[in-house]
Amino acid sequence: MELLKIKGLSKSFNIYSLGKYIEVSKDINITLNKGEFIGITGKSGSGKSTILKCIYRTYLPKKGDIIYFSEKFGKINLSEAKEREIIYLRKNEIGYVSQFLNVMPRTTAREVVQNALLEMGYKLEYAKVETEKMLEHFELDKELWDSYPNNFSGGEKLRLNIARAMVKKPRLLLLDEPTASLDNSSKLKVRELIENLKREGTTMIGIFHDLEFMEGLCDKVYNMEKGNFV
């Protein structure tokens, strides 16, 4: 059963200060079935992250369709969806993990994860229990749970970012280099959660440079070069 179908996706940028026009992704086609995990590899700057950002609607594609089969809206083209629809999908159906943690000031690590569940409508008691399970899984020191993430190391911030996205168990999860600055022990924790989510039916697209991490995890792997799959 299809969950996501990308047809003829292209994205370009005008860099006015340099007088340049750059085509980042060209004629991308992907079919993703429910419960599948697709991996995308390629050199930095090849256009991998652009695909995820178009799905999440951080970027608007230049052309092409991104058809998503939503639990609430049914068949919806993310390239043309209204902002209120995108906001709902981000809160309830589509998760995104980047290498960078962006949170509201004076929000503790515990609140970062807990709020992700509260905004979905879960009760506080459930959110508290699931948050603690997730923070323990990623071995984030309990003394840090009620601290502000701007004091964390890069690896701690990344673990918290992954915890925030994965605690929601989204229908579609986009992973943009989720293991970039993690040690081997933390990578195994991420892999374990990805395997659990996959068993539970979460559909995923992940960008990785760590080919060893991808081994046995992805159902399909695409290699990207200069904006195209090769």
UniProtKB/TrEMBL annotation:
Annotated localization: Cell membrane
* Coiled-coil stretches: none
Keyword Transferase in record? no
- PROSITE patterns the UniProt entry points to: ABC_TRANSPORTER_2
Membrane-related topology note: Peripheral membrane protein
PANTHER family, per this entry? AMINO ACID IMPORT ATP-BINDING PROTEIN, GLUTAMATE_ASPARTATE IMPORT ATP-BINDING PROTEIN GLTL
Q: In its UniProt entry, what is this protein called?
A: Phosphonate ABC transporter ATP-binding protein
Source organism of the structure: Clostridium thermobutyricum
